[in-house]
Design goal:
465 residues; mainly beta; five-stranded mixed beta sheet; five-stranded antiparallel beta sheet; 2 helices; 4% helix; globular
Length: 465
């Protein structure tokens, strides 16, 4: 109750400080709580490891659905079904001799970085990568289209820069081509590598002759995947990090591209690859080391002039963590503080950490207002409503998730619900799928002392608006 009252008071102060909006409202409330989703289908898939969190993968492709996860014994498992099937066909991937900390390349250790991810190429062959944190590339490709049970391990892709891989991701271009990208190197010293799959030769090749970003041996970029937005261009943003200590993040940066090969800064000027810290034209906000930005703690949308607009967090002059926006004004970025929170999230150190403040989705509503989601350990969760001047002028009341999604089944102390969204496309815009399971929190990639929780149930949920 105290937290709710405090959040309401802070929101009231922010709202009353706003300039008059075009609609004349100082405290506009947009109620979307009627737009609820219902649970249309639940499939109990398997029992999974609950000792620590690690990313699972769900991919809907045409009339098929594929999953990849770690079971109760920490073995990597893949599954598939037709969308009208009531259960998944499961296959445990055979362990190989490539050692990781705590197991082989298909057996999970205590590292929360070791997520698993899926992709599908234009001919329907399934691709999988995962369980690697500064580790030789772990990659599988199916020998038959649309059949995940035929995955076979390939010991390399291109053959170079593949011995210290982390953060694997597959993505599909607007033309339908499959791209794989990952970090080569370690936290504080690494480059972002992009490979393109040639469906004719069934071989991978470099998309770019050079890494997209290069820390020059002094740092590495924690960057987003190139994302097609409303202007039909790809957009990427990142922060640099100097060492494995997450407090050494700095300099929120951004570039864009029409074709993933030619890149530009926010002002339309060409950017020579690789992008480095030396090119100051790509920096949105020169946040210093220990300045309060964590990996990818930012969200991007477009303003009403179709220019990029960022929301992110950093420390204010008093040392408290605040939300800020950055938008283009002439030939520079205009930085503005949004919140007035009395709380400092003091993050530092190595390994996977537990998030205390989260920047949620940022959206131009198209009605003269913007909305920005947030999560805060002290002030709760919600969605701010912003006016064109980037002032908090109200709130958007979002529908709650179905109770089944947030409900804990396990009784072990500290268990938390985990979900994973769909990497593919549902059959229509009224339905969506997600995976749900339960684990203990992250422990900076170190084992929790025993006893450990029993395996939790992995579910697939189909939700309908």
């Amino acid at each position: 109750m105290k937290t709710t009252l405090l959040l309401t008071f802070i929101l009231f102060i922010a709202v009353t400080a706003c300039a008059q909006t075009d609609s004349g409202d100082l405290n506009k409330i947009i109620d979307e709580t009627k737009n609820t989703e219902s649970v249309e289908q639940v499939i109990a898939i398997d029992k999974v490891w609950a000792g620590h969190p690690v990313g699972f993968s769900l991919l809907t492709h045409q009339n098929r659905q594929y999953i990849a996860y770690y079971n109760a014994n920490r073995n990597m498992v893949v599954g598939q079904r037709n969308l009208n099937d009531a259960k998944f066909e499961l296959t445990i991937l055979a362990a190989t001799s490539r050692e990781t900390s705590g197991g082989t390349s298909t057996v999970l250790g205590w590292d929360s970085h070791n997520s698993v991810t899926l992709g599908v190429d234009p001919d329907g062959y399934i691709h999988l990568s995962g369980n690697m944190h500064v580790h030789p590339i772990t990659y599988f490709r199916s020998t038959k289209p649309n059949d995940i049970s035929t995955l076979k391990q390939e010991m390399s892709m291109v053959g170079t820069n593949e011995n210290r891989c982390t953060y694997p991701h597959f993505m599909t271009t607007r033309e339908g081509e499959l791209i794989f990208h990952y970090r080569d190197g370690s936290s504080g010293s690494g480059n972002e590598i992009y490979n393109l799959f040639n469906s004719k030769t069934l071989k991978w090749q470099r998309l770019l002759d050079t890494p997209l970003t290069d820390g020059q041996g002094l740092m590495n970029a924690y960057q987003t995947q190139p994302t097609l937005l409303a202007d039909n261009w790809y957009h990427v943003y990142w922060v640099w990090r100097d060492t494995p200590d997450c407090a050494t993040n700095h300099d929120l940066s951004y570039i864009k591209s029409p074709d993933l090969k030619n890149w530009f800064n926010a002002f339309g000027e060409p950017v020579k690859l690789p992008a480095t810290l030396d090119n100051r034209s790509v920096i949105v906000d020169p946040i210093p080391v220990k300045g309060g930005i964590i990996n990818l703690a930012a969200s991007l949308c477009f303003d009403n002039e179709d220019k990029p607009l960022f929301a992110y967090h950093k420390y204010d002059a008093s040392g408290n963590l605040q939300f800020y926006t950055a938008r283009i004004s002439g030939k520079k970025w205009e930085i503005k503080r949004l919140t007035n929170w009395d709380y400092r999230w003091e993050f530092s150190g190595n390994g996977s950490i537990n998030t205390e403040v989260r920047v949620g989705p940022f959206k131009n509503r198209g009605d003269g207002f913007y909305e920005l989601g947030y999560g805060h350990i002290k002030y709760g969760n919600g969605t701010f409503l912003l006016n064109e001047k980037m002032e908090i002028c109200g709130q958007v009341r979002k529908p709650a998730s179905p109770a089944q999604i947030s409900k804990l089944e396990g009784t072990f102390k500290g268990l938390q619900v985990r979900t994973s969204g769909d990497l593919g496309k549902s059959e229509n815009d009224k339905t969506r799928y997600l995976l749900k399971w339960e684990t203990q929190p992250a422990n900076r990639d170190q084992p929790w002392p025993e006893p450990w929780p029993e395996a939790s149930q992995l579910y697939l949920y189909k939700l309908r608006k």
